[in-house]
Design brief:
three-stranded antiparallel sheet; 58 residues; elongated
């Protein structure tokens, strides 16, 4: 069974991963929520995320 993880990428090359799930749609939702939260809580432009993606864990 496939497992999916949402990853939020930041400008300095770091990333933040969500927990894994077997539902891709739920992983997309988690990624969007993590991205929006990071945008709201960033103290400056340097700490804002650049993108998020959902990847399949093997």
């Amino acid at each position: 069974m496939a497992r999916y993880v949402a990853i939020v990428w930041f400008k300095n090359g770091t990333k933040r991963e969500s927990g894994s799930t077997d539902n891709r749609a739920y992983a997309e939702k988690m990624g969007a929520q993590m991205y929006e939260q990071a945008m709201r809580t960033a103290v400056s432009d340097i700490f804002k995320p650049t993108r998020y993606e959902v990847v399949e864990k093997k």
